[in-house]
Amino acid sequence: MTDLSPDGQPQLGKHRIEALVDGIFAVAMTLLVIELRLPEHAHLATEAALREALVELLPKLMSWLVSFFVLAIFWIANHRLYSYVRHADPGLLWLTILSLSGASLLPFASAVNGQFASTTGQAVYTGVMIWLSVSTLLVARHIHRHPGLCAHPMSLGAYRATMVRSFGVMSIAALALLIGYVAPGKANIVFALMFTLRPLGARVERRYAQAAA
C-alpha cells in the first residue's frame, strides 16, 4: 500500500525513478557517439585522406565532448538532489520526467550543433541546455519546499547553490549563443566554464552554513 503524506498525497518510492534517471542518462550519453563516424562514401586509402577525414570530424567531436560532460554534470546534479529524498510525490515525479525529456533530447541537439556550424544549430543546443537547467531548478525547488518528502531537508544554502549552478548554466548557454552569431561552430568552447560552477555553488552553500551557525 502506498503511504500518504500529511496533505493526502501519495508517497512513492524513489528507487524506480532513480533507475529511470540512470537508464535515460546512460542511453543519451551512449547515443552521442553515434555521430562520430567517418563518411561511408569517402575513399580513405591513404594516411593523408584519413587525417583529413578525422579533421573534418573535429566539430562533431567537440560537440560530443561538451554534451557528454554536460549530461554527466546534470546526472550528478540529479543524484545530489535525490540524496535528500526519502519518498517522491507526483509533482516531483513529473518534474523529474521533464528533466529527463531534456536529457533525451540532447543527443539530437548535439548532432545538429555538430553537423551545422550555424547560429540556428547553436540556438537549438542552447534551448535544450536551458530546458535542462530550468527543469533541474524546478526539481530542487520542489524538494526544498516539501521537506516531508526528505530524509533530511534541503538547507537554504544547498538550494541557493543549486540556483547559482542552474542560472550559471543558462548564462553560459546564452553566451554561447551570442558567440555563435560572431563565430558559428566555435562557441561550444564556452561550455568549459561549467566546471567553475561546482566550486562556486559550494562557496555559496558554505556561506549560508556559516551565516546560520
From TrEMBL:
Quote the Pfam families the UniProt record gives: TMEM175
What main location does UniProt list?
membrane
Where are the membrane-spanning stretches?
20-38, 61-79, 91-111, 123-143, 164-183
Q: Which compartments is it annotated to reside in?
A: Membrane
Which UniProt keyword terms apply here? Ion channel, Ion transport, Membrane, Potassium, Potassium channel, Potassium transport, Transmembrane, Transmembrane helix, Transport
Q: Which domain of life is it from?
A: Bacteria
Keyword Cytoplasm listed? The answer is no
* GO molecular function per UniProt: potassium channel activity; proton channel activity
This enzyme catalyses:
K(+)(in) = K(+)(out)
One Gene Ontology cellular component: membrane
Q: How does it sit in the membrane?
A: Multi-pass membrane protein
Query: Known PANTHER family for this protein?
Result: ENDOSOMAL/LYSOSOMAL POTASSIUM CHANNEL TMEM175, ENDOSOMAL_LYSOSOMAL PROTON CHANNEL TMEM175
Q: What is the name of the protein in this document?
A: DUF1211 domain-containing protein
Could you tell me which species this protein originates from? Duganella vulcania
Q: What is the phylogenetic placement of the source species in the record?
A: Bacteria, Pseudomonadati, Pseudomonadota, Betaproteobacteria, Burkholderiales
